[in-house]
Specification:
heterodimer; A: mainly alpha; two-stranded antiparallel ribbon; 23 helices; 2 strands; B: 152 residues; mainly alpha; 5 helices; flat
Chain lengths: 502, 152
């Protein structure tokens, strides 16, 4: 069978000593930074992104990046459970019952449950990717420029629908991102544009500088606003092993969470966050002891953690097959691929099968490493929680500066980091989320190129987008989503969900 | 001004998007717009800029009926020391070289927090410089001069 052959290729690629090593380093570094309170998965990946470019081989560096992602996610759950400070909104749900479990002296079991749930979810979701990626790729190969444009519009609209806060602001952030993505040299005419006379910026604004600035620096500034001491609840985590009763009670929530997360993760927009919330409310509804929720229910950790992880995993599907990022982390992965000289999209599977299948195989290996490593190392992570902030800032700033400079040796990239850090902080203060901006930035050049190609192919007839059936269907979907988001009832409900989250 | 009927955050936010949209629109007009058949380099940027201005207007108008929420504390000290750190690295890495630039950047960033004492800051910066030089310069072999022309 072709599928098995592909998988064999994938595992052969991913399980070389070097690649397992890179995956391991990625998982460790990701957990190391991700466990720092207040620093979420996206910020972690943005800060560690430049390091992966030091590896010459694109396959290895993407594998390491994926490892960083899993590690960062797990690190986020650890902080959520131990100090009730979720770094990312997706682990906010874990904090509700996880922190209560820790207060009841069951921190070890909560951490183990999160790890086991994530592993099971990761394994199942990886199988789903193997099954669904090839047919989706085949379908995507039939897409023309017009379909691509419409698909990107759907992706951007979904990211808006699932962003926090005001919809109008999220749309504005997408548009700003698209504009920033177009700064520099125009690919088709070669003309230099939108650079305000700053030719030092080069062909394009530096993606790494924007990511580090918007997510890394802005997040540090937000943490500096309020330098209160953190309360580390548990100084020593004991009793990691869940009892047989615990295992019995986590099984069903893990499976339900995985199913939910896998389905929502494929959708463009940040499905994993939604999945975690949905899983929590489902578990609360089906539980025979709903009164335990909010007071340390095991199912309240197992379900959302699995949903979150499954969603994180299946969000690779649109990224790998269509080249469309489902969330800011995937936008970072696409940015990394472009810098490595790989054009994301349906051609990756055909032109670079070792990369495509190697990355998929490494997902499973990454999850395995995570469970093998992190449970024994949990004592170390707890110690890290106690490192004071003021020691972390200089370290992070030095590494970010070195990292960004190492990509192009362009001093202007460092100035961009400072500029976008300040801009990101300013926008946060205005209650604008940076995630849609990053998606827009990555998709800007792709959208424009396909738009212009579609217009040339249709001989200048803009109705091509609504006369081609697939394109029309996609645009209709985008429109429906936009209308739903603006419906008064949905709007109120949506605000409620996100208020609860903060 | 009546606080309950005016949201200053949204007013600033709307004004910001209008301003940025106008700047980008002006920049788009410097290059060729093209036709529907052959969209020029300025076509899509201009369309997006106009959209951004429109969104800015909507946000600004919404400030009139919004409830003012407090902006919260602003990390002025952090802004100064944290955002200047990469700039300092950029200005010194060619002249002082890798070692000097890392040290100065770390030392400068240390003062972002009120809790850092000068002695600790120096100790941390020295340790960080040694570590970074060992890992990035010797270990990963980044092609930066360790000591630049200013030190010779």
């Amino acid at each position: 069978m072709e599928l098995l052959g592909n998988l064999a290729l994938g595992f052969a690629t991913a399980s070389t000593v070097a690649n397992i090593g890179f995956c391991l380093i990625g998982v460790l570094l990701g957990t190391l930074i991700g466990v720092l309170p207040g620093i979420g998965a996206t910020a972690t990946i943005a800060m560690l992104l430049p390091i992966t470019f030091q590896i010459g081989d694109p396959v290895s560096s993407l594998i390491m990046l994926a490892g960083i992602y899993y590690g960062a996610q797990y690190g986020g759950s650890t902080t959520a459970i131990l100090i009730n400070m979720p770094g990312e909104s997706s682990s906010a749900v874990t904090a509700i019952d996880g922190y209560q479990m820790a207060r009841n002296g069951r921190a070890g079991v909560a951490l183990a449950t999160a790890a086991i749930g994530s592993f099971v979810a990761g394994t199942i979701a990886t199988v789903l990717i193997v099954l669904f990626a090839p047919p989706l790729t085949a379908m995507a190969l039939k897409f023309g420029a017009a379909e691509y444009c419409s698909l990107m519009v759907v992706g951007l609209v979904m990211s808006v629908a699932l962003a926090h806060g005001s919809v109008v602001k999220a749309v504005a952030m997408v548009v700003l991102g698209l504009l920033l993505g177009l700064v520099g040299q125009d690919v088709i005419s070669g003309a230099s544009r939108l650079n305000f006379g700053l030719t030092q910026l080069g062909d394009q604004l530096n993606f790494v500088a924007i990511a580090v600035g918007l997510f890394g620096i802005a997040e540090i500034l937000r943490n500096l606003e309020d330098e209160r001491t953190r309360e580390v609840l548990v100084s020593k985590v004991t009793g990691l092993m869940p009892t047989r009763e615990d295992f019995r009670r986590m099984a069903a929530p893990i499976l339900r969470g995985t199913a939910l997360g896998s389905a929502l993760g494929i959708l463009p927009g940040n499905g994993a966050v939604l999945a975690a919330f949905a899983s929590y409310s489902i578990e609360k509804r089906v539980s025979d002891r709903p009164q335990e929720f909010g007071r340390g229910a095991l199912a309240g950790v197992a379900g959302p953690e699995s949903a979150n992880n499954a969603g994180a995993q299946t969000s690779f599907i649109p990224m790998l097959t269509l080249g469309i990022p489902a969330n800011p982390v995937m936008a970072l992965m696409i940015g990394a691929m472009i810098i490595q000289g790989i054009v994301p999209g349906p051609n990756v599977a055909a032109e670079n099968p070792a990369l495509f299948w190697g990355l998929i195989a490494s997902m499973w290996i990454g999850n395995l490493l995570l469970i093998i490593l992190n449970l024994p190392l949990v004592g170390l992570w707890v110690k890290l929680l106690k490192v004071p902030y003021y020691v972390l800032f200089p370290i992070i700033m030095a590494f970010c500066s070195i990292g960004v400079y190492s990509v192009n040796s362009n001093v202007w990239d460092l100035f961009s980091v400072a500029f976008f850090g300040l801009l990101g902080y300013f926008l946060l203060k205005l209650r604008c989320e940076p995630a849609p901006l990053l998606l827009g930035f990555v998709l800007g050049p792709l959208l424009e190129e396909n738009l212009r190609r579609a217009m040339i192919l249709s001989r200048g007839d803009p109705t091509t987008f609504i006369t081609r059936p697939i394109s029309a269907g996609l645009l209709l979907l985008a429109l429906v989503v936009l209308v739903i988001v603006f419906l008064p009832a949905v709007r109120r409900k949506r605000e409620e969900v996100f208020v609860e989250e903060d | 001004m009546n606080k309950s009927s005016f949201d200053p955050t949204n007013a600033v936010c709307g004004a910001f998007f209008i301003l940025v949209g106008a700047l980008f629109a002006w920049q788009s007009l410097q290059v060729e717009l093209g036709t529907w058949l052959r969209i020029g380099p300025g076509g899509m940027p201009l369309a997006l800029s106009l959209l951004l201005i429109l969104l800015g207007v909507i946000i600004a108008l919404s400030s009139l009926r919004g409830v003012g929420e407090p902006v919260g504390a602003i990390a002025w000290r952090g802004i100064l020391f944290i955002t200047l750190a990469p700039i300092i690295f950029g200005l010194t890495v060619r002249g002082l070289g890798f070692v000097g630039a890392v040290f100065i950047t770390a030392l400068f960033a240390s003062f972002a927090s009120l809790r850092m004492t000068p002695l600790r800051a120096v100790a941390l910066s020295v340790a960080l410089t040694v570590f970074s030089t060992a890992v990035f310069s010797y270990g990963l072999g980044l092609p930066f001069e360790r000591f630049g022309p200013w030190l010779r």
